Amino acid sequence: MTDVNLATARDNMVEQQLRTWEILNERVLEVMHRMPRDRFTPSAFANLAYADMQVPIDHDQVMLEPKVVGRLLQALDPQPNERALEIGTGTGYLTACLGEMAADVTSVDLYPEFTELAASNLKKQAIENNRLETGDAALGWDDGRRYDVIAVTGSLPELHQGFHRSLTQGGRLFLIVGQPPIMEAVLITRVGEDQWARESLFDTSAPALVGAPVTRSFAV
Length: 220
Fold this sequence. Notes:
Layout: H1 3-18, H2 26-34, E1 55-57, E2 61-63, H3 66-76, E3 83-87, H4 93-101, E4 104-109, H5 112-124, E5 130-134, E6 147-152, E7 167-177, E8 183-192, E9 195-204
Parallel strand pairs: 3-4, 3-6, 4-5, 6-7
Antiparallel strand pairs: 1-2, 7-8, 8-9
Family: Belongs to the methyltransferase superfamily. L-isoaspartyl/D-aspartyl protein methyltransferase family.
Protein name: Protein-L-isoaspartate O-methyltransferase
Pfam families: PCMT
């Protein structure tokens, strides 16, 4: 696909996918319009970078569809003075968007190949306000810091509070909770030291975060 066609596809993504799915935050629209999603998409699927679909990447993972990324960013609403944590780096696209909206981003992935790929992709776009880590964050990520926004890009079959205490007071956490075929995107806000508010955002579906706990039931 030519640069002209990619530019048109990016325009169409914003106008036909994001705006029509109630994504009206101008900062989010501007960042997603400017960020070249195709540069973070595997070459085999580059023509689908701006399509309304999940794009497959290695290890049976996906890039979330653009409208879900948009709703995630709109719900979290990262501010220029805030610190962000991302669980599930993938190719680095959401890392880049968070980096454009927040002061800095820590992003964690289970797979070192994704950490290396994202580092390369982010460097090519001259996005430097990020710290990429490789590790298992299925039960949470306690690095001694608290974060104003946390985005968990893999779904949790069952809600747990492993990420809740990594939030600052007033901090926001985006999660996708449940099991196929329909899952729920939720926003959790820390309103007190031991209090959190939960808001249901929309129905969606995404691959489970590798290693996320699930209660197994056995037929008798």
